[in-house]
Amino acid sequence: MTFPSLDTGNQSLQRSLALLGRAGALRQEGDVVGAVAAYQQAIRANTMNGVAYYELLAMLLQLGEVANAEKVLAAVPPSLYGKSGSLQRMQGIVLMEQGRYADAIALFQRLQGDASINQANLSNDLGSCYSRQEKFDEALAHYRRAFQAGMRDPVLYTNIAGIYSKQGNSVEAEKYYREALQKYPGHADVTYEYANFLLKTEQFERGFPMYRRRWEAALFGCTAPLLPIPEWDGKARVGSLLVLGEQGVGDQIVFSSLLRGLTGKVDRIATAFDRRLNPLLTRSFPEIGIANVSGNPSEAELVEKYDAYISAADMGALAPDAIGWTQGYLKADPERAARLRHKYQAMFPGKKLVGISWKSTRPLYGEKKTVDIEAWKNVLAIESCQFICLQYGDVRADLARAAGLCASGHGVYLDPEIDSFNDLDGLAAQIAALDLVITTSNSTAHLAAAIDAPTWLMLPTGSGLCWYWGQRKDSVAWYPHIRPFRIKEADNWAPALHDVMLSLQKTCEVDP
Q: pTM of the prediction?
């Protein structure tokens, strides 16, 4: 990293450099607010101090403050920006974080050969641009170029390993994960990424103990719970255990399958999961005697009621053999399900009742798991089926678009009796009332699979594919009885939907 030379005897520059050193010290201490203020003071002291701009930009980007980084770049004097390849590279990173990949790639390519920039870092940047577009061959070529140029950053190892994993080359992926862990044994993000790979490849006995490091990983994005009771390691029997829900509702449904694995190790279990799951959990595990915790109990209440706690995913390290061993571990309300089925059969006589859910609303990668409703047109045109909406959220616009695609004059039926977002017990009963569920990767998929409803699951590729769906072609480790339809190219759902259409037609012929 080099910048235009400055007069080191200049008093304003000396003050700026002193403030720059103070900013670095505050950053090391974790004082983000103080560091930002000191960087800004360093810039005001001398507006040509390129290092101050660069370090402030690096910190803002590390914090995810892309909009503020863009403002800082706009304030860089043109004469400094034009002569500084390092600041121009920062501009490319901002463009990449904004999703403007073509602009970022063009800028990075323009900087290739610039002696003021570490070219290995530039190759890594290009690899990240292509990786985010799920152009894995191009991404791997640039990552390997960075590796060959001598870059040995832990993130580069996991980037290369991640690309191999997404391409289905588990041997090469594990090679790079192992090498990264050997070189950086205490690195939380390396451990977390490797754990995800091991879980994805169904190496549960190795993966779950390493997955415990997720709380320390910046990539995980959540902090560890702080409770006044000890964390349970599963070695000694405890009287009363509090199981903490984590991540999203779908993840909590997945991990609830592990509760029975605690039998014989715990006398009493209480779950602090999403409150919407409480009726299902209480009904589904009567032999465990689960109590549901709601609200925010005080420290005194926690100490009084519970001997220890465990986070939901960490149950996997205690009972890895329990994964996928039982079907229908969650129980829908049988009376409500029977009533709904009777209602639908009366409304749509002779039709196969097929529930559909087509999108994920999660902030991270939700768009990768979403299939535009109009792409379903050939599926919705099957006359022997009546499609029932299982999609949560405001779907009125989607249903209006779907109305003209359906062979049935009823369109995709949205039952006003079911609040599929707030009433998960009602949604489970609705799913149990149907003949089949076809869904993308969202909480509806987990709920349908967990109650053992016939389920066809449309799975994305690349970054949108969560580790718990694994790599099997015709089944899924956590729910071996569901049928996956995996896409091979990012965002290209047409082949999977064509297979769904043909399979549904065949199913209707066999079982009209």
A: 0.84
